[in-house]
Structure formats: C-alpha cells, structure tokens
Amino acid sequence: MIENHTDARPQSGLNRADLVYEAVAEGGITRFMAVYWRNDAERIQFVRSARIYYIHWAAELGAVYVHWGQVEDPGPVDVWPVLSRLNIRVLNGLFLGEQVGYRDPERLAPHNVYTDTGLLWSTAQAFGYTGPPSLQPWLFKDDEVARSANPAFRAGPAIDVTFGDASSPYAVRWEYDAGSNGYLRSMGGVPHTDGVSGERLTARNVAVQFAVLRPSGVKAYNIIDTVGTGPAVVFQDGVAIAGTWRKDSEAARTRFYDAAGNEIAFNRGRTWIEVVPSESAVGY
C-alpha cells in the first residue's frame, strides 16, 4: 500500500510494479496498491494502511499484502474479518516494524515509511509465504500500434481521470506516446515522476473501472463495491475500448470485457487500474 496524500509525495517504486491499482481512500485522496513480481524495487515509498477493497484485489492475485496499519473500527470498514475470511498472507509493519520498512527521519510521520522488494521477499519467506501465487491470468496480446490510426476504433490519445474533482491535486491525466506505445502519467496538472529516479510514470494499459463508492457511516471511510459488474474503458495502443468489468466474488479475478462481451486482452507490460466513483467524469 502506497499513499498519495500531498504530504507523502513524491512516491518512489511505482514504475517498478507490474500492476498498480488506484482508488479513493477517503476525503477524495487516492491511494495505490502496487503489485511486484518480475522486478525489484530498491525503494518503495511511502507505505500506509489497509482498506477492505484493496484486500479484495490482493486476494484475487494470491498476493502477500503489505501495509502499515489498518482500519479496525467496528462495522463495515473493519479489515480484520476480511483478512481472516480470505486467508490473506499479510505483512503488517505496524506490528513487524523494520521487518517490513523503515522510517525516514527527514520526513514527518505517518508519511515516511519506505521499504524495498528485497526486504519484503526475505520477510515473506521467513513467514513461510513461499511458492507461486494462485491466480487466474488475464489474456495478453502483441502490440497493435496501427489501431490508433484505424477509424474503426475510438481514438484515446489522452485520458482525464478526475476521481470526482477535476481541480484536485489527485486528478490524473494519461497521454498516449506512440513511440513507446504506452501512456505518460500526470497528476495535479504536472508530470508524475519517481522521487528517486526522476523518471516519468508510465503504463502500457490503463483500465478505468467505474464502481459504486459510498460512505461507510464510520468516520470518513468509504466502501467501494468491488464485487459485481459495471462500466469500464480500457486504453491501449492509443485507442479506447468501452465495455464492462466483472468480479464474481471477493477473491475472484476482476475481468474486463468489450461491448460485444469478449474478454479484453492486455498488452504486455505495466497496467494501471483506475477505480473511479460511478458518477465520476472521465474524459477521452
């Protein structure tokens, strides 16, 4: 779990992830769940707490879920019953401390926990979290750069993801780059770059998933309906493919389908899933 509060910027390590989920944590502030498998990341910053809907996405990957703290208020936002029910493999820095990450003394808590994949793989192994994960793969395909010039497809040269507020520091814009057949990320009106390497954040696929976001009744915490179905738009090869998403249970894989009901195959490489409130404006 990587936070996106303005006091937690700049992040680092997102461009080393294979898959990144972004959704609203509370108060319009988004939070990332970055999934690492192929690549090591020498610094991942800054690690924060768990929410139930991210646990649902971790469950479908068979992931080791790494976080620092959790929502545990009684009621619909309490993460403990969900972690237990889904038998999630957990590394919680609130209890494990430097087995999970370190505090940067030059930054104020709680926006200062950093880690790296070497430490996390080692700790996971020490806790017996070994062996390959159990997951159902998506479909993948070769690049089709020519689709961006084909009038049979809806062009998607830019994507504006507002998360409900186009003027907020959490509003996102992705711009298609034909040279890499990928997308370049901006946030809050400026290029989103890695805090250590300085490189621009990129994705090969951007899937926008519209989901119901509703107040939980507990403080400012939200509930996001991750199970079920809803509209989606997948961006790849410079085109926009409108369709739907579907997740049949808390641990089932979320899948994306085009308007004809065919499962969408992704380009190989980093994918971002932007989970936006159902009523949120997304321009393309």
Which structural traits does this protein have?
single chain; 284 residues; mainly beta; YerB-like fold; 2 domains; nine-stranded mixed beta sheet; six-stranded antiparallel beta sheet; 24 strands; globular
Task: Characterize the structure shown.
This protein has 284 residues and is mainly beta. The protein has 2 domains: 2-126, YerB-like fold (3-Layer(bba) Sandwich), CATH 3.50.90; 140-283, 3-Layer(bba) Sandwich (YerB-like fold), CATH 3.50.90.10. Helix content is 10%, strand content 36%. It is built from 4 helices and 24 strands. The strands form 6 sheets. Strands 1, 2, 3, 10, 16, 19, 20, 21 and 23 form a 9-stranded mixed beta sheet that branches. Strands 11, 12, 13, 14, 15 and 24 form a 6-stranded antiparallel beta sheet that branches. It has a 3-stranded antiparallel beta sheet with strand order 4-8-7. The longest helix has 10 residues, at 117-126. It is globular, with a radius of gyration of 18 Å. The two termini are 28 Å apart.
